[in-house]
Amino acid sequence: MNEMKRSKNEGKALVFCLMAIVSIALSGCFLSQERAVLNRPILFINDTEITTQQFSEKLASRLKYFDALQAKDSSTLVRAKNETVQAFILETIAKDFAKKNGLTISDAELDAEVQKIRSRYPDDFAFRRSLADERMTFDRWKEDLSFTLLQRKIFTKISEKTPEPTEAELKDYYEKNKPLFQTAARVRLRQVVLEREDDAKRILEEISSGKDIGALAKKFSVAPEAENNGDTGWIEKGSLDVFDQAFKMSVGSRSKILQSPYGYHIYEVLKKEPEGRLSFPEAKAKIRAQLIERREQATFSAWLQEQVRKTSVKKNDALINAITVTTRES
Q1: How far apart are CA 227 and CA 216, in angstroms?
Q2: What value, to the nearest 5°, has the Cα angle with vertex 217 and ends 216 and 219?
Q3: pLDDT tens, position by position, 112-136
């Protein structure tokens, strides 16, 4: 603890050693003479010790979205350092709470989330490329993801005793916020979308001769809903010009060939609903979810503020102030 009280002169003497700390963290290369400095404690948060290396890595991650000139700006650097301190405080609070309450993330939970995120990319190369663009290793990303999952569990634990809104509260919210429950006119269609007008003309002829539009959509349509036999689901008025014409048509009628930026459309009107307002019974579930979410957020925020007030934080200001930023072409 005594080195938290070292003189400012020591901090000035360390500037030369720390000049490249942030850029070193980004490149992953460390010089032997810098190891002693990097392993020194820079923060004590409750019983957790944060080293200069850990601090510099998180600071570098925070600054990577700035250009070189901004990152070196003194006001930007000071703000980023303060935000880094706060990030470590919140992280420590979360991990301490998780440990006391037996909250952990299993390998199975983490792997499932990794696969879920990976599935959003066309292939593993695209996924790895996205990490490279963020200058992040897979292991580091996975570690951050694990902490995100842990935060979700902590939020659930803290907010689990949030009281349910009463029926009177739900009705009161509905009465005071009726404009929120206005619904636009909407229509449900079954459509075929073709890239070429000649193809659209051929499909229109087949529909006119009695062929099922759903079967043709599944076989020939280039639109995403083709696998659902061309069923678009509900479309609100004003979503796309080509669909607005459907509001003038009767249920069961079919359109002519209509062009949009997505191709050539032929559709059949399945259902129509006029604009209106959800009744209280129709809106009740949505209101309940909104009120519970607000209460959970308020409960968690109050808890977090209380934890921050109770947290013991000791900083080595000399080391923090000594960290500067260097940049290089990547």
Answers
A1: 11
A2: 65
A3: 999 999 999 989 999 999 998 887 8
